């Protein structure tokens, strides 16, 4: 009972997605009903042929029923083709709609959601679990209607032929449903374990391929193979358990069907010997039972399939029930030409599930066109500022404003059109260099893209690539170096031309030479824009208008480069311990024992 309750809840959750296709579903069901009637008529015509043509040896009695049988068969074939074709189209449209809806929802979820879920498992939910729900809602509904009407028509025809004999054989039919309920729990548990293991396998493969350099450099091939083997064995055990339960059900049903057919033949032989039944009637009756039990068996099997599909539905509902961290306001402030004044007012923030605040009572203002550099020890809460300013999260307390308007009062689309982010990780799309730059402002012309690349000091190396701006690059690409990829990202940000720019550790992962190559493009990028740069690298500190020092989630110092050095506090300690450069590294090596 618990399993069927979960099926009903999942069905009710996803059935609204069929809106727009319900007319087609009605036509599919009509085709199913006509096909079942055609099958019923075919069996009755077979009985007539047997009694009047075959048993009597009359050729003249053959043509009428034979012609009618052929016409019914053609009708059934045409209707069956139409119904099956429409069913496939409707099912795929449902999958398309469901996958798009889930994908749209996933893109609104906060960063911590993706940190808690393995990427491969999410991929499996958007593929295999979506297909399982389609089997429940569309294919399952059509299959149930088909089996139900077929069972009704074949039962009615059997009762019409010999109601007493039919009632005797119908007594065994509930055994199919009892068996289905008996095996449902076992199959559902196996399906849940199998889908979880599917996601784990996809995750291991995705993680291993994404970290292939680490795997090879640290001789982790054996360890990765063991990881995959462990998850694959879990999948194997779940798959075998599910297959065994399904096979036990199938074999039990086969025995029950055989028992029913033997009962019919035995009783029919006795009826023929008593002259109360013709051979054609017996054959037709046996045929009706032969056609009747598969739909009943299908109803039982359908129950098992629906129960198994709830495993996928539960996994998908976990995603859909996760609320986005931020949403658009009900009545947003109208759009305006943004000047770029950014202000934090007593802003505090704590990540979901965290024990303490990442930011506490932070207050500062960046005026239009001002370059504000934010630094501090690792884990001080600097990057949290970027997540709040681009509104991946809303503050737990306080308010953040753009031109004096709280960020929570404007739409996310408007905010992110006017606040450009250059994240710590250089993000690359699977596409050409031109497409990667152009995603900063869709619809940009080739001239605008090239101008942005020139300003980012990227045009020269792009021009010498095999296909220039048409060169294909992918995440983890070896076509471009880290510094070159960063300059492509800078060109993307330049093309966007947002009045507010947020830079999160723009030189992280670059060697000294590559870092120097991006300094000039960064200077051009921040010029004329309100810029908040989070960084440990203080190369651009003298160029900044103001420096904010964050420590322990609090804003502990602020001022110019010279003022903070003279103050002798946290910033002076950070600035007094520069990272080794190409000129200082040999001196350090010489002085080491």
Brief account:
This protein is an alpha/beta fold. The chain contains 19 helices and 12 strands.
Structure description:
Strand 9, helix 16 and strand 10 form a beta-alpha-beta unit. The chain has a six-stranded mixed sheet with strand order 6-9-10-3-11-12, with helices on both faces. It has a four-stranded antiparallel sheet with strand order 2-1-4-5, covered by helices on one side. Helix 5 packs antiparallel against helix 6, helix 13 crosses helix 15 and helix 15 runs parallel beside helix 16. It has 19 helices and twelve strands. It has 593 residues and is α/β, with parallel strands linked by helices.
Oligomer: single chain
If you compute it from the alpha carbons, what radius of gyration comes out, rounded to the nearest whole angstrom? 35 Å
Q: Structural class of the helices, strands and pairings? A: alpha/beta
How many beta strands in the DSSP annotation? 12
Name the overall outline.
Answer: elongated
Mean pLDDT: 79
Strand order, largest beta sheet: 6-9-10-3-11-12
Distance between the termini: 75 Å
- Which regions have little confidence, pLDDT < 50, spanning 5+ residues? 577-593
- In terms of DSSP E residues, the strand content is 5-15%
Range of helix content: 55-70%
Largest sheet: 6 strands, mixed
């Amino acid at each position: 009972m618990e399993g069927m309750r979960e099926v009903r809840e999942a069905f009710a959750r996803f059935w609204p997605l069929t809106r727009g296709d319900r007319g087609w579903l009605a036509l599919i069901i009509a085709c199913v009903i006509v096909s079942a009637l055609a099958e019923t008529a075919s069996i009755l015509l077979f009985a007539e042929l047997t009694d009047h043509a075959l048993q009597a040896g009359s050729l003249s009695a053959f043509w009428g029923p034979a012609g009618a049988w052929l016409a019914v068969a053609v009708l059934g074939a045409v209707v069956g083709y139409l119904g099956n074709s429409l069913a496939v189209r409707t099912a795929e449209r449902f999958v398309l709609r469901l996958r798009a809806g889930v994908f749209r929802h996933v893109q609104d979820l906060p960063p911590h959601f993706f940190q808690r879920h393995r990427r491969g498992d999410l991929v499996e939910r958007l593929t295999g679990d979506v297909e399982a729900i389609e089997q429940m809602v569309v294919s399952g509904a059509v299959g149930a209607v088909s089996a139900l009407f077929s069972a009704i028509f074949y039962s009615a025809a059997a009762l019409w032929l010999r109601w007493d004999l039919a009632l005797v054989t119908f007594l065994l039919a509930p055994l199919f449903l009892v068996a289905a309920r008996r095996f449902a729990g076992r199959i559902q548990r196996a399906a849940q374990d199998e889908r979880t293991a599917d996601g784990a396998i996809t995750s291991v493969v995705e993680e291993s391929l994404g970290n292939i350099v680490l795997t090879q450099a640290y001789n982790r091939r054996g360890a990765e193979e063991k990881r995959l083997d462990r998850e694959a064995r879990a999948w194997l055990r779940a798959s075998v358990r599910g297959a065994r339960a399904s096979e036990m059900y199938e074999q039990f049903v086969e025995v029950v069907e055989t028992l029913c057919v033997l009962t019919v033949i035995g009783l029919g032989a006795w009826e023929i010997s008593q002259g109360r039944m013709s051979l054609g009637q017996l054959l037709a009756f046996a045929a009706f039972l032969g056609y009747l039990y598969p739909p009943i068996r299908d109803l039982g099997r359908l129950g098992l399939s629906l129960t198994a599909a709830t495993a996928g539905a539960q996994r998908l509902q976990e995603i859909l029930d996760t609320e986005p961290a931020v949403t658009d306001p009900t009545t947003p402030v109208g759009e305006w030409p943004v000047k770029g004044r950014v202000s934090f007012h007593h802003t505090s923030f704590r990540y979901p599930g965290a024990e303490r605040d990442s930011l506490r009572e932070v207050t500062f203002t960046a005026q239009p066109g001002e370059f504000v550099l934010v630094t501090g020890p690792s884990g001080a809460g600097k990057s949290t500022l970027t997540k709040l300013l681009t509104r991946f999260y809303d503050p737990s307390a306080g308010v953040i404003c753009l031109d004096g308007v709280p960020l929570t009062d404007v739409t996310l689309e408007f905010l992110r059109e006017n606040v450009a982010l250059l994240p710590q990780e250089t993000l690359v799309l699977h596409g050409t260099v031109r497409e990667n730059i152009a995603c900063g402002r869709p619809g940009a012309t080739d001239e605008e893209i090239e101008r942005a690349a020139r300003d980012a000091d990227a045009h020269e190396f792009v021009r010498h690539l095999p296909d220039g701006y048409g060169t294909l690059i992918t995440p983890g690409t070896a076509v471009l170096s880290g510094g070159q990829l960063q300059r492509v990202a800078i060109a993307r940000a330049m093309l966007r031309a947002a009045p507010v720019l947020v830079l999160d550790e723009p030189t992280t992962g670059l060697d000294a030479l590559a870092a120097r190559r991006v300094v000039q493009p960064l200077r051009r990028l921040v010029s004329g824009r309100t810029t908040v740069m989070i960084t440990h690298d203080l190369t651009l500190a003298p160029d900044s208008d103001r420096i904010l020092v964050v420590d322990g989630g609090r804003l502990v110092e602020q001022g110019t480069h010279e003022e903070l050095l003279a103050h002798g506090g946290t910033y002076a300690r950070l600035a007094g311990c520069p990272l080794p450069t190409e000129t200082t590294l040999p001196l350090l090596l010489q002085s080491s024992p």
